[in-house]
Amino acid sequence: MAVTTPEHGLPGHLVDFVGALRRHGVAVGPGETVDAAEVVGALDLLRRRELREGLAAALLRRSGQREVFDTLFDLYFPPALGVGAQEIEVPRATTEDGSDGPVDVDALRDLLADLLLAGDEEGLRELARAAVDALGTAGASGTGVQGVNGQPSWSAYQALRLMSPETLLARILDAMRQDGDPTDDFTDEVRRREIRDRIARFRKMVQDEVRRRTAEQRGREQVAKTAVPKQAEQVEFLSAYAEQLAQLRRTVHPLARRLASRLAVRRKHAKRGQLDMRRTLRRSMSTGGVPMKPAYKTRRPGRPELVILCDVSGSVAGFSHFTLLLVQALREQFSKVRVFAFVEKTDEVTHLFEPGAELSGVMQRVLREADLTAFDGHSDYGHALGSFAEFWGEAITSKTSLLILGDARTNYRDPNLAVLRRLVGQARHAHWLNPEPKRQWGTGDSAAHRYADVLPMHECRTAGQLADVVEALLPV
Amino acid sequence: MKATQSPLFGSVDEVTERLEGVGYLASTAVATTVYLADRLGKPLLVEGPAGVGKTELAKAVAAATGSGLVRLQCYEGIDEARALYEWNHAKQLLRITAGQGHESWDATRDDVFSEEFLLPRPLLTAIRRDDPTVLLIDEMDKADVEVEGLLLEVLSDYQVSIPEMGTVTATRKPFALLTSNSTRELSEALKRRCLFLHLDFPDPDLERRIVLTRVPELPQALADALVRTVRVLRAMELRKVPSVAETIDWGRTLLALGLDTLDDDAVRQTLGVVLKHQSDQVKASAELRLN
Where does the AAA+ ATPase domain lie (chain B) (predicted)? Predict the structure, then answer.
């Protein structure tokens, strides 16, 4: 690939791209950049999909990074410039002078429905491209959407609102039923989910397209700063939305497996070192009293009991849920796990986390079935700790590790430090995991600092941080 | 670091074609990375869920290029002696006893640590072969961290140092392929030496073709319905999502039972083939309104 390029050219561009990846938390070393350059040299640059896969192979080292990579790749190696090659015409309302009028939204929706029904991926992508372009420059009939100062304005929100692909679901399903396939509940459900999936993908195409056009206008750095998704492990619990939390939940089991195997390594290393004199001498008998093979002491892993007390009020529910799932996945590491949930009052919910239980909807069951609220449904740490000590105080013994999950926001009520101090005194270990950033502790109604005086408090804003803390807490 | 030998493949398309020739349908990602691994002379680390064809890929590459496949199956506790080489102690002892009395110690010592008394294990075997070789290091994540250190020399320089003999360098670089189920993170040092491929479930069109190549008797329409249903199952939050292997098994099951449409009855009867956990089955039945 000997191409004469301007000053920085392709290598410079590649370095920019790597820089953007680094800014988004993908650790790429100079070695990988060199690999990527070799990849660029070995591949046909006109084949974009191969280039994408090739660069991913050279630059990425973990599977969770792919989404960030794809978004940035689209920004740095856009499939087209400007409108691109038009294969699909967006239907427009006719005007008197024959020029392009506003977009005919109904006809556009018909077109979209047909493509969704056929599942034509390429067609959908073309349509997304054409529709974003048309809606950005010409606007739709009757809406008057038009860029300011003659500048076209790209908006995924506008485009998706006008086309509203979700509302096409029923129509597409009807069309499918008329095709004469069997129509039982099951087939219906499968189809519905399939169409929903296609619609979601179309939404994403529109968003990608808008991102690309905006990047052309305002510079890709600007767009990359805001539009690139975070890796699941770096999403903050408190600001995550439903989709991110669902994605996060999928990472629980891999994460737990990773922690467990790291733990196994730690145990193996911890075993070494301590010489067992008695067994070494016994063994030396067979070699005439010369200790050829020293024997080492094996330590039995102490498996502590775990009591988890978690705030399940709205603000921290995502964090509590994820942590509980993680602990549940790690339950082999503990001899016994008991889970207590609280908002204003405390109730035991261990039975909902039994092995084999269906865990993804367990939070709703906790809120529905457990007796947690008394007056207004705002968390009351003082009262919750009090009721825990009163009814389940005997759960804490000298073998127990106590784990409290919550943001320590008491809504200006009594934090009840005396009871907590007593509980911590009874337990073997006690730790508090707080999903709030450390700098916000103690602000407003947060009693974090006061609680932190009683027991060690750890900041757990992201799954990555949580994993580190849990790993450090696990018994060796 | 350019490979001195002629590459196995000429272009990405050729990879796809030749892999297809031996019954492995490769996606763009697979074909591209295989092509690059060959071109750049780097090992390929394939990660992904169980049953997406990681090991199959190595076998297919070997078959498509007419190379010999050398396989190192990793497990917990695998060590140097199992992976690299071992001295044949028994034979060495025999040699020493045989030489006693009419040979100087120096001569015996030099002779005992020679080629003849070396038992090559997979890694050394792969390095020493003159014919084209595919080296498959399977389930790398099962092995201990120490083994990774041992691999570094082999994978970056394609050589093995044997203290008593010297360094054995590959005359012909093997095509190295490592697989991992990511039960643990492999070390950065190892990852940096490899090209990385995350092998995920194939897109519907590819999966349909895979099912049809593996179960050719399956009617088109049924394969279509099968793949669509499996995709819906994968989108749910299940403990163990069905992989390609399960889709193929499902196709075979339906065929064996003589079912020619995938309606709710058929699914109810055979759901156990794709979902291996009771809780998953209960959840899927509820969500797909099978009850």
Answer: 40-205
The A457-459 sheet, strands edge to edge? A346-348, A336-342, A305-311, A400-405, A429-434, A457-459
The residue type at A145: V
Touching check for A269 and chain B: CB below 8 Å? no
Q: Would an 8 Å CB–CB cutoff place A356 in contact with chain B? A: yes
Q: Which has more pLDDT, A176 or A10?
A: A10
What confidence tens digit (pLDDT) does each residue in B174-222 have? 999 999 987 777 888 888 889 999 988 898 889 999 999 888 988 888 8
Long-range own/partner contacts, residues B253-256 (CB < 8 A, 24 or more apart): B254/B218, B254/B222, B254/B226, B255/B215, B255/B217, B255/B218
Edge to edge, what strands does the sheet with B175-180 contain? B68-73, B133-138, B175-180, B44-47, B195-198
Residue A6 has pLDDT above 60, yes or no: no
Cα three-residue angle A148-A152-A156, rounded to 5 degrees: 105
So where are chain A's domains? 9-76, 92-231, 254-473
List B residues 196-255 in contact with A (Cβ-Cβ < 8 A): 196-198, 200, 228-229, 231-232, 235, 237, 239
Highest mean pLDDT among A234-243, A352-361, A410-419, B98-107: A410-419
CA atoms of A86 and A113, how far apart (whole Å): 19
**A441 or A225: which leads in pLDDT:** A441
Look at A186 and B188 and tell me if their CB atoms are within 8 Å: no
Q: Residue A476's pLDDT band (boundaries 50, 70, 90)? A: low
Closest CA to B231 of B211, B202, B269, B272: B202
H or E element, residue B44: strand B44-47
Q: Which of A53, A61, A250 faces B237 most closely, judged by CB atoms?
A: A250
Alpha helices by DSSP H, listed for A370-446, are 381-392, 417-426
Residue bearing tokens 């031996």: B22
Instruction: Give the integer Cα–Cα distance in Å for A453 and A457.
Output: 9
Cα distance between residue A40 and residue B61, in whole Å: 23
Q: Nearest CB to A57: which of B185, B197, B239?
A: B197
The pLDDT, as a whole number, for residue A360 is 64
Among the CATH numbers 3.40.50.620, 3.30.2170.10, 3.40.50.410, 3.40.1160.10, which is that of A254-473? 3.40.50.410
Q: ipTM, 2 decimals? A: 0.87
Query: Can you tell me the distance from the alpha carbon of B82 to that of B66, in angstroms, rounded to the nearest whole number?
Result: 26
Residue from B154, B114, B150 nearest B133 by CA? B154
DSSP string spanning A271-336?
Answer: HTT-B-HHHHHHHHGGGTT---S--BPPPPPP--EEEEEEE-SGGGHHHHHHHHHHHHHTGGGSSE
Q: CA-CA distances (angstroms) from residue A247 to A172, A175, A179, A415, B240?
A: 28, 32, 35, 34, 15
Amino acid identity of A133? D
Beta strand pairing call for B175-180 and B133-138: parallel
Within the 160-199 window of chain B, which residues sit less than 8 Å (CB to CB) from chain A? 182-185, 188, 191-192, 195-198
The whole-chain average pLDDT of chain A stands at 80
User: Rounded to the nearest 5 degrees, what angle is found at the Cα of A379, between the Cα atoms of A374 and A382?
Assistant: 85
CA A305 to chain centre: 29
* Residues of chain B predicted below pLDDT 50: 1-3
**Which has the higher per-residue pLDDT, A27 or A5?**
A27
| DSSP bridge pairs for A200 | none
Summarised one tens digit per residue, pLDDT across range A95-152 is 555 555 677 778 888 888 888 888 778 888 888 888 888 777 655 444 444 444 456 6
